[in-house]
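Support reply, case 0932

Customer input (verbatim):
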Amino acid sequence: MSPRDTDYSDLKALFINTTLTRSPGRSHTQSLIDVSASIMSDQGVEVDQFRAVDHPIATGVYPDMREYGWEVDAWPELFPRVLAADIFVIAGPIWLGDNSSETKKIIERLYAHSGELNEKGQWLYYGRTGGCLITGNEDGIKHCASNVLYSLQHIGYSIPPQADAGWIGEAGPGPSYGDELPDGTRVGFDNDFTNRNTTFLTWNLLHLARMLKDAGGFPDYGNQRKEWDAGVRFDFPNPEYRS
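Our regenerated output:
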């Protein structure tokens, strides 16, 4: 099916950049975000994004950490932007072979709402798609992506096929993604593996978000917390009647 046959203009996407560099400093991760975001924007998707490190987001696993001793917490004001997004992408760097501290913080704050329910009685994040982008100068794309994608699916996001992409340079100090070389070229921009996976990631997020939106979200049979608490067992076999 050609994208001309499908309208994505009612979808919203949010990219949270978990770089350790505050604006307006250069973020290599931002360069890869721009690739994915531009594909979405070309399809009419409303794209939102911000750097986590630019905001005083408190550390913790509760919706508002001001209720737990923190004087300032920007998360309650930022979280509506998460809920507004049909497509959610965490994008960040590799440090010491793992996700950045800002990546971990965002995942923890998302988890703070994982016990809340949507209008169908499912966990709050049901009906939304999730993915991740990773950049760095050391091995670890798959390790970092597996952590992010596992976390997102665990709290309720739907993960499409090939929902991660990234770029890493040679081991050790050296140029990062998007850095300009003496000949004027940009590092990584011609990497077919990164370009292909970023494109596939973006379109798979679009396709799944479109399907979920058209279906009115994820089916609600068998996953409603309140129904389970009320005694409904959704065909779970009763051990007393097993042969």
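We compared this against your earlier run and they match. Two observations from our side: The chain is about 30% helix and 15% strand. The radius of gyration is 20 Å. Please reopen the case if you see a mismatch on your end.
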